[in-house]
Design a protein that fits this description.
Blueprint: H1 3-6, H2 9-13, E1 26-30, E2 34-40, E3 49-54, E4 57-62, E5 84-89, E6 93-103, E7 106-113
Antiparallel strand pairs: 1-2, 2-7, 3-4, 4-5, 6-7
Length: 124
């Protein structure tokens, strides 16, 4: 009998084990001059998070791998780390005024709105 067969944790706790990927759950707040995103990234360090802006999309990516995939000392491993990816469309914004901070598993990104330009068109 293998060591993992001895403990059947699914029966012990009597609930299904969910196997889902991280969705980067996000709250978006709109203020007069900016958007504020609060994104859940529990279990990640800030160096495992990449933020970019491309063609109107703010892109957030995370990457974390198991440190010891084949460690036989574990009886069970339910904490899986994987990649997560999410895009947020903003259109035209001030690229130089996108700021991010990370605290206690929450990534906060402030995206400053671009002032709308009004162009006058002459009639010929």
């Amino acid at each position: 009998m293998k060591r993992n067969d001895f403990f059947d944790f699914d029966d012990l706790f009597d609930f299904p084990v969910l196997r889902t990927t991280s969705l980067l759950r996000t709250d978006v707040l709109e203020e007069d001059d900016k958007y504020v995103l609060e994104i859940e990234v529990p279990g990640y360090n800030k160096d495992e998070i990449k933020i970019s802006f491309d063609e109107g999309y703010l892109i957030v990516e995370t990457k974390k791998e198991n440190e010891s995939e084949n460690n036989d000392k574990y009886l069970r491993r339910e904490r899986n780390y994987s990649n997560a990816y999410r895009k947020y469309y903003f259109g035209e914004v001030n690229h130089d005024e996108i700021h991010a901070s990370f605290n206690n598993g929450i990534l906060t990104i402030e995206v400053t709105k671009k002032e709308p330009t009004v162009k006058s068109i002459n009639i010929e």
